[in-house]
Amino acid sequence: MIIKILGSGCSRCDKLFKRVNEVVAKNSVDAEVLKVDDVKKYAKHGILMTPALVINDKLICSINVPSEKDILKYINENT
Predict the structure, then answer these.
(1) For residue 33, what is the domain's CATH number?
(2) CA–CA separation, 49 and 63 (whole Å)
């Protein structure tokens, strides 16, 4: 599984990246978590506002930072 955090490096982007890594570690999820800060790369997902959470190239959510519970739900729904 590939999980991407799309964003320019703002505090919300950093918070989402950290939270996703914590969820992955706590739940022994076999995933690679990547931080993508190249506007050209995340624009292909139609992202206008960051941060955004992408799992296996599917846009899951953008703008907000979901809770750990929601992140785990998104991971389970997209495995």
Answers:
(1) 3.40.30.10
(2) 6
